[in-house]
Amino acid sequence: MSSTELPGSIATAATPTTLPVRVAEGERIRSVTLPGLTLSVRSRPPAREGLAPALYVHGLGGSSQNWSALMPLLADVLDGEAVDLPGFGDSPPPDDGDYSVTGHARAVIRHLDAGARGPVHLFGNSMGGAVATRVAAVRPDLVRTLTLVSPALPEIRVQRTAVPTALLAVPGVTKLFARITRDWTAEQRTRGVLGLCYGDPARVTEEGLANAVHEMERRLQLPYFWDAMTRSARGIVDAYTLGGQHGLWRQAERVLAPTLLVYGGRDQLVSYRMAQKAARSFRDSRLLTLPDAGHVAMMEYPDTVATAFRELLVDQGELAADGHRVTDPGTDTGTES
Description:
It contains 11 helices and 11 strands. With 337 residues, it is an alpha/beta fold. The chain has one domain: Alpha/Beta hydrolase fold, catalytic domain (Rossmann fold). It is globular. InterPro entries: AB_hydrolase_1 (IPR000073), AB_hydrolase_fold (IPR029058), AB_hydrolase_sf (IPR050266). Pfam families: Abhydrolase_1. Residues 55-300 form the AB hydrolase-1 domain.
């Protein structure tokens, strides 16, 4: 494994033909190279040594940047990293072209194994929630707690607003959509995505919109952009159809890690009605429902999600009720101020 790190407010961790990747103040981005796989990883320097490791996994069409609002709110209790899945953000496509949920889960596992960071507090949103569920089920040794924001788990009745996204999995649809929308500006595309993902798009700040438009412009320059979207969407649909022990709901039942579930009442991609089913399926779960949130609660209501996660740490004995971190068992006892 090799790693190259680029700090700064804007890091040029991109190919020469694309715009630079934007990195928030205090963040760093590095490239991790594994056999057949290169991953871009975003992080913040930990507030102090010895904090528990965390890994954040984005959803379909997203990137590690989706966690930039939440990560600093937990930087005093977690040593966090956010990964760009293969083909997304600044990570190039995997050599084997595997964009299935299992393929993405394998990439996460390989990253954790190579860095020897497990067990981690694992976060996942949307497709990343499905990926994180699979990781927690097949490699419980790597997962300390699991936090899922609108996880893409199979639904019997898909919402009508989610159908266009699902159609990306149909052969030929992506090329047709790309041709129909070829005259759309990056801002038009971005506003469309934000309108689909946010419960109230008015919550997006001017800076947030500018960063999202920049990222859209950058991605549209990538020759594999639509291929990664299409194959990953197909991977989600395929995962929904799997039965037996490989089915996502069956794997949810196998998760041993304490699990925080976050669902938005205005989510147009993952139905709010799935919250109770998820709460019943994960054996050690707690549920946070946000009536006004959409599909990306960690971006819309980061403070609320951070508070819920801290409460999970308190319940697990890793954080005292006064907010002080409890030293890991086996190393020392007491609290740190």
